[in-house]
Amino acid sequence: MPPENTTWPGHQAFLDKARVFDDADPLASFRERFHMPPRGEEACLYFTGNSLGLQPVGASDIIQGELEDWRKYGVEAHFEGRRPWVSYHKEATHDLAAIMGAQPREVVAMNALTVNLHLLLISFYRPEGRRTKLMIEAGAFPSDRYAALSQLRLHGLDPEENLIELAPREGEHTLRTEDITDRIAAEGDRLACVMLCGVQYYTGQWMPMAEVTAAAHAVGATCGFDLAHAAGNVPLQLHDWKVDFACWCGYKYLNGGPGCTAGAFVHERHAQKPELPRLEGWWGHAESRRFKMEPDFDLMPGAEGWQTSNAPVMNMAALLASLAEFRAAGMDRLRHKSIALTAFLEEGIMAVAQDTGDTLEILTPSDPDARGCQLSIVAHGHGKALFEHLTENGVIVDWREPAVIRMAPVPLYNSFADVARFLGILDDGLRRDT
């Protein structure tokens, strides 16, 4: 990596501030609870927790424990293991409820993100009469759009007429709250369901979830969110906001590993609604009678009633290790550090741009209430060469076409010193590319 003292005159000041902040950080020790990938003789600068979180140090012990129970008990580990497999998904329930701002019976760890989105839309997107439209954001993560389109076709509806895609105003990158709520009000009784992201994957905007939910309910529509980039990143209050449904993956900020078990939220007011259409499976059947192999379905109350199959134990084990770290750190403290860490990054990027004379445009809102830890940056006039320079110098960030570098300083394992070191490499890359 380049030396700490780069040609940027302001770099030393940021290094000095970073040391002060890190010395005062009550969460600094959590960095040692995750494996930071090496780059040569040093650890890399890892800013892609928004794509794949780091491996918790405790993950290997939990996974090894399940392998030992499998070896020792075989099928009996469903009931005899240290964490019995028959109820394995419950090991994550209370921690997920705390992260999502939910009641325990409102959350369940199951399946994969888009599978859960489909299962929930089957229940909460119910077009009838005039009320047929489904609302998403323009530029939604492709999988969400694919799911929305297929749900419309499943009901025999023309997407051209029934899919609403909310776009920012011309010349802007993010959605204004009033534009979302005004459009919901304008659609009125033609709107069946609003399904937006919690945090937009491309821009990093944290959607005004409470306001959107209230606006949807005011016109009689249901409201749900894809929380892939929000879960473990921003403080959520799904229960209090009266969100109808939500889903998330477990491998980004939740650090559960590639392909980790995802999760779902269903508000408790829907807990006892057997009349809600759903795709049923035996793990949604009454727990006390599940192994009687009865032909008739007896719905479990709460989010567990949307389960179709038993938990993928090995795929969920690493998630439990990460959830233990969230429990120890606390979302309040993580959020406090996240706001400071991202503000430090933003300040540094603007200082580098001013010093080099480059135009570094941050697409993500500056308001902490409208973003998590991710910043999406466009380095005008530099293109992918800058991204490649960062990569060659041990910085792991994310490139998105046509010209966006996404980076997320994660409060669980990133430090202020990481950010300061990155700023020196950024400055060096801009000068070399020029």
Would you mind describing this structure in some detail?
The protein is an alpha/beta fold. It folds into 2 domains: 11-56 and 330-433, Aspartate Aminotransferase, domain 1 (Alpha-Beta Complex); 62-328, 3-Layer(aba) Sandwich (Aspartate Aminotransferase, domain 2). It is built from 14 helices and 17 strands. The strands form 5 sheets. The protein has a 7-stranded mixed β-sheet, with helices on both faces. Strands 13-14-17-16 form a 4-stranded antiparallel β-sheet, covered by helices on one side. Strands 1-5 form a two-stranded antiparallel sheet. Residues 1-5 have low confidence and may be disordered.
Annotation keywords:
alpha/beta, 17 strands, 14 helices, Aspartate Aminotransferase, domain 1, disordered N terminus, single chain, four-stranded antiparallel beta sheet, Aspartate Aminotransferase, domain 2
Query: What ranges have pLDDT less than 50 throughout 5 or more consecutive residues?
Result: 1-5
Q: What best-fitting shape do the alpha-carbon axes yield?
A: globular
CATH class of the largest domain: Alpha Beta
Q: What is the strand tally?
A: 17
- The number of distinct helices, counting runs of at least 4 residues, comes to 14
Summary, kept brief:
By secondary structure, the chain is an alpha/beta fold. 38% of the residues lie in helices and 14% in strands.
Topology:
Blueprint: H1 11-23, E1 34-35, E2 38-39, E3 42-43, E4 45-46, E5 55-56, H2 59-73, H3 77-80, H4 93-100, E6 107-109, H5 113-124, E7 133-137, H6 142-154, H7 159-162, E8 163-166, H8 177-187, E9 191-197, H9 209-218, E10 222-226, H10 238-241, E11 245-248, E12 263-266, H11 313-329, H12 331-356, E13 360-362, E14 375-379, H13 384-392, E15 395-396, E16 398-400, E17 404-407, H14 416-433
Parallel strand pairs: 4-15, 7-8, 7-9, 9-10, 10-11
Antiparallel strand pairs: 1-5, 2-3, 6-12, 11-12, 13-14, 14-17, 16-17
